[in-house]
Amino acid sequence: STGEYNISFGDYAACCLTTGRANISIGYHAGRRVKNGDDNIFMGRYTGCATSGDNNIFLGCRAGCKSTSGSQNLALGTLAMGACDVTGTGNIALGCQAGLKVTSGNKNIFIGHDVALNCEITGNYNFIFGKAAAVRLTSGNDNFVGGYQGGYCLSTGSANILLGSRIASDGGAEFTGCCNIILGDSAGKKATTASH
Question: What angle (nearest 5°) sits at the alpha carbon of residue 108, between those of residues 123 and 61?
Fold first, then answer.
């Protein structure tokens, strides 16, 4: 390795490192495949083990474990941003399985247990918080969602403000509407394509 200023500790931690600089990899397989990425911090078993990007921070078992070329991402919690090939930039996932399937999405913020859990996320600029909020989010952009199961069925809808428990959460059809403001417990529970 010709890389400099790296710290690694744990079986197979940063074992493929070549020219990468200033990386910290602590834990079993942490940062295992990092070759030329710079300024990453991986702490926990399998964190960032497929990463080639720069300036990522992954803390918690398997956090960011399938991230590849994504850069400037922050994932804190078991499996946060941990199930898909992350190529997006500037995402934040805080909580167990938060943003689990982020792929090419950029500059999203996910806070809470199981937030945006079930679908591959390609959308941008979403702010989602609350347990199991927006679990069906896919390509929706610019949404602000908060509350227990808030926006549960939100998928491709964009520019929505959904605040309260179980908003747009009917277990049936996906919510694809845009430019809505829905506030209050169970409000718009059966909303699907409503816009404006």
Answer: 110
Q: Beta strand 92-94 with 7-9: parallel, antiparallel or unpaired?
A: unpaired
Which strands form 7-9's sheet, in the order they lie side by side? 7-9, 24-26, 41-43, 57-59, 74-76, 92-94, 109-111, 127-129, 144-146, 161-163, 181-183
- State the residue for tokens 């919510």: 175
Q: Phi first, then psi: give them for residue 9, nearest 5 degrees.
A: -150, 125
pTM over 0.85: yes
Confidence of residue 168 (pLDDT cuts 50, 70, 90): confident
Residue corresponding to tokens 């277990």? 171
Helices (H), the chain: none
